[in-house]
Amino acid sequence: MPEVAIEIVAHEELTSSDLEGLRRLFDAEYLDDFGEWDPDKPYGYAPHALHVIARRGGEIVGQVGWARRTIAVGGAEIEIGGVGGVLISDAVRGERVGSRLMSAVAESMRGANGVAFGYPGCREEVVSFYASCGWTRISAEERSIDTSGRPREDPPGQPLLILPVEGEIADWPVGAVDLRGRAW
């Protein structure tokens, strides 16, 4: 069986074949609940500027997307890499493809210069996966724009995670998080 290769592709450089492979991956997971995947507004969330893609034999078997954004935390502004679209095909589950993708995401953020932290959106049931990849859970109120375009405020307690890219965990400010847009 061929090796799983990891590559980083800018959103605007995705080929039609890449888009079709990503559509298959996303639709296999979300089609019944959310309809077809739209690469420019995935299920109403923020799009990705970079796609970290896992391929086996040319087929896309995993993906993590991220985009740079300046957000507000307490009274501070922080440059983050907002992470979303973390998907692994059933064909490669158990092969540590997810952790390899998350390592590549962190490395790509380090190479982007100026990204202080990674910041994913996730469900409670996958927090342990992020923790196993070095991400730290924080507790804060979070403000964003929801998938229908309306302001949203979530109280502390929902899964929020950060990954220091340039700096340390202690550098994360105290206070409410304002994503200044849609989550990823």
From TrEMBL:
Per the UniProt entry, the signal peptide is: none
SUPFAM superfamilies per UniProt: Acyl-CoA N-acyltransferases (Nat)
Keywords in alphabetical order:
Transferase
Task: Provide an example Pfam family for this protein.
Answer: Acetyltransf_9
Q: Name one GO molecular function term.
A: acyltransferase activity, transferring groups other than amino-acyl groups
N-acetyltransferase domain: residues covered = 9-166
Source organism's superkingdom?
Answer: Bacteria
Q: What is the protein name for this chain?
A: GNAT family acetyltransferase
Q: What species does this protein belong to? A: Kocuria flava
